[in-house]
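Human: I hope this is not a bother. Would you mind checking the protein record under this note? Thank you for your patience.
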Amino acid sequence: MSISPPDPLLALALVVVALGLLDRLGLWMEARGWIYWRRRRAQGSALGATFLELQKIFESGKAEHVIAARESAGRESPDPIAGHLAADHAEIDALFGEARMAMDRGLQPEAHRALDRIWMRLAVHIRAEHRALFPAVAEARPDLAEALQTLREDHDFFMATLAAAVNALKGAELDWAAIRSGVEAVQRRLAAHNSLEEERIYPVADQLPEAQRRHLAGEVSRELAALPTRYGD
């Protein structure tokens, strides 16, 4: 009795299903910190880890991560860049107060939502700096290359640590002490980070020639205005 060859479409479907299951297993293991899969990677690459984290919400063409930008986005802006970014620092700092209150009370959904909002706001802020601000500052002040590198490494730490805390808050059994420790580490490092930016980096942007400064201000405004749709939930 002859055996007919396997249906190629069926074989392809089985391969797709197997790859999907493997991906889900990888994500499940990554969420528990056992491996690095596709959502994050080990720290050490100045830009790599940050942009792998940001890719989740800024990857075009995926309905889950549609960006909602304000009508004014992309226009040239006369507003001081330093003031705009420093104000964003202050708003993000205020969100940490909400997160601390929820964690102190053991309110899992509220803590998860608060930390997710911080993660999103920082992601947008970092994106504005990496795409618009830092390249302009690096060109105008090559002597600040080391400071910019330090800031990029800080960004990697913020994104990875906050992502771990957000993922941990999805679990059934929570280690509140570990989550709180990670968030506090971000806050401590963020304070020094923001001081460095506000004292040495942001003023450079406001000292650029007027046409360049206005264009850069518009670019920064556009990036800060682009938030994931779930941020308004």
About this structure: The CA atoms of residues 83 and 142 lie 23 Å apart. The first strand starts at residue 67 and ends at 68. DSSP finds seven helices and two strands in the chain. Confidence is low (pLDDT under 50) at residues 30-50, 57-78.
